[in-house]
Structure formats: structure tokens, C-alpha cells
Design brief:
The protein is α/β, with parallel strands linked by helices and 237 residues long. It has ten helices and four strands, in the order αβαβαβαβαααααα.
């Protein structure tokens, strides 16, 4: 894997982590939550449900030219401090948004989320942190904010990239979309292609580590085993 492609891959992963798994939620009474894939929310006086723009948007749009608000992102339980992750610093550099990370507890996560929302806590994104039960409760409280208008204005590329069946997973009976689904990995695309919806997970390799053991990116199980064995033999790690 060459370093240029690796940097592009990292950019795709980071941006996907912020933008793709989202369902909108407004502070001060209107919260957004999503499906099992993720959620976005908005603070009072700010709009953050879409960070992807389209060619049709003009530079006069204050959403694009105004001061960028800080984003509060809620994640599922993690045993480490999200603020200490190097990838998140790169994410802020790529997008220009300052991000404050929050985690739900390992136990009673839904109860904690409902208490937060009832107390007026505002999250801009809820990233894969909730399940169907939490979504149902927020939906029953009329706490969800549809993201259709934002997608129509700023997310034409997202609309085209997501399959119709995936959109149904984040839409209510009224037909409005309350989230942005993250579809399964379907392989790398060209550097000039649309990266949305490409990556959900996988195994990453450091290009310098591959070069150090004189190996290329594995594409079969045998090659994968050979890379791992060679790396262990040569580095004892």
C-alpha cells in the first residue's frame, strides 16, 4: 500500500466516522436520535446535521462561510479517552470543526441518554450509540428532527450513494428521514471516486511497516498470514 493511498484511506475513514452514521437531534426540547447505526443532534442556534456540501450550494450560504460551531459527539462506551486519539486530531484538521467527545456508560446506557436529553443536554451527533429501544423512546416523545431538508441542500452525493433499502431503515412512517445509514464495506474505489458508503470496517496496515518487511498489501488469506508471520518473525511483535 503506498503512502498516498493510505492517507486517502485514512481521510475516508475519519470523515465517515463523523458524517455517515448520524441522526439529528436538537437541544432545548428537540433531540435527535437514530437507528442502530447512529445519530446527529443540533445545538440551539446551530445546524450541524450535514457537513457534506454539494456543487449546487453557493459560497454565500452562511452554513458554509460562517463561523463553525463546536460539535458535541456522543459515542457508545469506550474504555479510553476519545480526546486522546490521534485520529480525532486529524479529523478536526480535515473538517475544521472542534469536536467534544462524550461516551455513554457501559451499563444502563439508554437510561443515561434519556436523562441527558430530559435535562437539556445537547449532542450534535450520536454515533452508533443507541439501539432500537432508545430510538423508539425518542420517537414516541416526538424528539426526532428529520434531516431531509439538509440532505436535499447539502448532501446530494450522500443521497445518491445510499441504497433505497438503507434509507428505509432510518425513516419513520411519515416517510421522513431521521438519520443517515452507514452501509457495509463494498471495497475500495478510485481516489477520485465518491468515498461515501464505502468503509464500515476492516483491517488497516501501516505502509511503512509493510515496506520494512518488504511486503505489499495482502489480498488473500494466504498473503495475509504470510504478512503477519513475517512481521512477527522480523519484529518479535
Amino acid at each position: 500500500m503506498n503512502k498516498t493511498w493510505m492517507k486517502w484511506l485514512l481521510s475516508v475513514v475519519l470523515i465517515a466516522g463523523l458524517v455517515l452514521p448520524a441522526v439529528a437531534c436538537t437541544g432545548g426540547g428537540t433531540t435527535t436520535a437514530g437507528t442502530t447505526t447512529g445519530a446527529t443532534t443540533t445545538k440551539p442556534g446551530s445546524t450541524t446535521a450535514a457537513t457534506t456540501t454539494t456543487q449546487a450550494t453557493t459560497t454565500a450560504d452562511p452554513f458554509l462561510t460562517g463561523e463553525k460551531p463546536e460539535l458535541n459527539i456522543l459515542m457508545y462506551y469506550q474504555a479510553y479517552d476519545m480526546h486522546q486519539q490521534p485520529s480525532h486530531a486529524v479529523l478536526e484538521e480535515l473538517t475544521g470543526y472542534k469536536v467534544n467527545w462524550f461516551n455513554l456508560p457501559q451499563e444502563n446506557a439508554t437510561e443515561k441518554l434519556m436523562l441527558d436529553i430530559a435535562g437539556g443536554v445537547s449532542y450534535d451527533f450520536i454515533d452508533r450509540a443507541i439501539g432500537g429501544d432508545a430510538y423508539g423512546q425518542l420517537n414516541a416523545q416526538n424528539a426526532l428532527m428529520p434531516v431531509d431538508e439538509l440532505l436535499d441542500k447539502y448532501g446530494a452525493n450522500i443521497m445518491e450513494a445510499v441504497s433505497e433499502i438503507a434509507w428505509k431503515a432510518v425513516a419513520n412512517a411519515d416517510g421522513k428521514r431521521y438519520g443517515i445509514p452507514l452501509e457495509a464495506f463494498d471495497g475500495p474505489r478510485s481516489a477520485d471516486g465518491d468515498p461515501y458508503g464505502v468503509l464500515k470496517g476492516g483491517v488497516g496496515f501501516r505502509s511503512d511497516a509493510l515496506e520494512a518487511i518488504n511486503k505489499t498489501l495482502p489480498t488473500t488469506l494466504d498473503e495475509f498470514y504470510d504478512v503477519l508471520k513475517t512481521y512477527k518473525d522480523q519484529t518479535d511483535k
